[in-house]
Request: fold
Amino acid sequence: MPTMKVKDLEMYYEIHGEKNEVPLVLIMGLSGDVTGWMFQIPEFSKKYRVIAFDNRDAGRTSKTDTSYSIDTMAEDTYNLLKQLGVKKAHIFGASMGGCIAQSFALKHPEMLRSLILASTIPRAPKGVNFLNIWPEMIKLLPQELFLKQNLLWALTKESLENDALVQMGIQMMKNNPFAQPPEAFIRQCQASLKFDALERLKEIKAPTLVVVGDRDILTPVWEAKEIASRIPKAELKVIQGCAHGMTLEKSPELNKAVLEFLEKH
Reply:
């Protein structure tokens, strides 16, 4: 799959279901790359022209040595879509990707068919939180131990007791040939810490679906309810028995909720 020069970046992107007319753009979360959509792309591309890409400082997209913001990554998304000739699309962001999607929706409402926000927050947490602890932990912990503690936040107790699932998750991250360097992870955390769209969510007019796992402790249900209450006519879907990593843990339920929503818009 190709890369494209987008301003200061070489952005890696994939297009699936090219024969389909309506674009569906997937924006991944903190440290993730397009492989994080492995259980979504095959289903979504049956009907939609799926565009997935690696954010700056992740996967096969350029790494940078300067600080940036969520708004910067929203502009990366916009500039990539503009160069691909996309005029209007469904935008689906997960976790940090949901923050990017909110910024995109506020900056470029003319490009939205609809908005899907999964496992995300309307503004960065304050005080002691995972976004300011993880940058310190990644400097101190061996790689596999850091990856294991990430799974503690991402999966439910039942999933953590599934050795096959846990090992699959660890091996996927360990063996990723385009794994994110620690310094790039830290920059993404710092960008996320500056995010705050809460007071502007009322400006989003596109049809919106907010999805969250009922056991998500990173981006909990009350945060999703806050987002849905502030975006006019937003729909809220709570997936049962699901933590933060719903693209992996509850992919059939997530895919069904998203496709049913898209069918209406």
Q: What stands out?
A: DSSP finds eleven helices and eight strands in the chain.
